[in-house]
């Protein structure tokens, strides 16, 4: 005998996604300000430097390829690198300097002051992500953090823009983060497509 599915469970699965997405809508102005700041840096010749710990390390790679090789035909490619892609460097630094230094060390030698640093952390307490953003800030980069839950220690730091996926379930946080960085990509291009929006003395 085939049992009927428990639709209450199904409903809860979908409902757990509603509030985090609605909170993203509430934070629309914060997201837009971060996108505008990113677009200005790109406009001046900066690049995006992305990093994340654990699962977000693959998000960092995803973000980088979205900017370097846009999936939407006709959108301009923008320079971006993921600090999680080079296994030799990551493991070498982790062995010699410690795991906490894997991003900060790379920022020192690969990033320029006009660049953008985007750090991704599920709970906001990853020390290597925090140190990477702190080093970026010291070097003059624009700093952006994608975090979840209550934002953790990263939300209380001096990061320029902190965007929080307000959820307790790490799976839901990841889902909201994917939506966030797709919006970052899209709005950066929206600003590029509006002549004079970024800097009137520079042709888009």
TrEMBL record:
<dbReference type="GO" id="GO:1901135">
    <property type="term" value="P:carbohydrate derivative metabolic process"/>
</dbReference>
<dbReference type="Pfam" id="PF13580">
    <property type="entry name" value="SIS_2"/>
</dbReference>
<dbReference type="InterPro" id="IPR035461">
    <property type="entry name" value="GmhA/DiaA"/>
</dbReference>
<dbReference type="InterPro" id="IPR046348">
    <property type="entry name" value="SIS_dom_sf"/>
</dbReference>
<feature type="domain" description="SIS">
    <location>
        <begin position="38"/>
        <end position="197"/>
    </location>
</feature>
<dbReference type="GO" id="GO:0097367">
    <property type="term" value="F:carbohydrate derivative binding"/>
</dbReference>
<dbReference type="GO" id="GO:0016853">
    <property type="term" value="F:isomerase activity"/>
</dbReference>
<protein>
    <submittedName>
        <fullName>D-sedoheptulose 7-phosphate isomerase</fullName>
        <ecNumber>5.3.1.28</ecNumber>
    </submittedName>
</protein>
<keyword id="KW-0413">Isomerase</keyword>
<dbReference type="InterPro" id="IPR050099">
    <property type="entry name" value="SIS_GmhA/DiaA_subfam"/>
</dbReference>
<dbReference type="InterPro" id="IPR001347">
    <property type="entry name" value="SIS_dom"/>
</dbReference>
């Amino acid at each position: 005998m085939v049992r009927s599915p428990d639709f209450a469970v199904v409903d809860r699965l979908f409902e757990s996604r509603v509030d985090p997405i609605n909170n993203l809508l509430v934070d629309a102005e914060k997201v837009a300000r971060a996108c505008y700041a990113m677009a200005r840096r790109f406009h001046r010749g900066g690049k995006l430097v992305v990093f994340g710990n654990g699962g977000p390390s693959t998000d960092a790679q995803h973000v980088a390829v979205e900017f370097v090789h846009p999936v939407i035909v006709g959108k301009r490619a923008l320079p971006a690198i993921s600090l999680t892609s080079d296994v030799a460097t990551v493991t070498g630094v982790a062995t010699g300097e410690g795991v906490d230094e894997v991003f900060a060390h790379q920022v020192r030698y690969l990033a320029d002051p006009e660049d953008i640093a985007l750090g991704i952390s599920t709970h906001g307490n990853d020390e290597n992500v925090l140190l990477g953003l702190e080093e970026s800030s010291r070097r003059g980069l624009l700093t952006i953090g994608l975090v979840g839950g209550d934002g953790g220690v990263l939300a209380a730091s001096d990061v320029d823009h902190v965007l929080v996926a307000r959820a307790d379930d790490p799976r839901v946080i990841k889902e909201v983060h994917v939506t966030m960085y797709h919006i970052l990509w899209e709005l950066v291009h929206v600003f590029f497509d509006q002549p004079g929006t970024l800097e009137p003395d520079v042709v888009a």
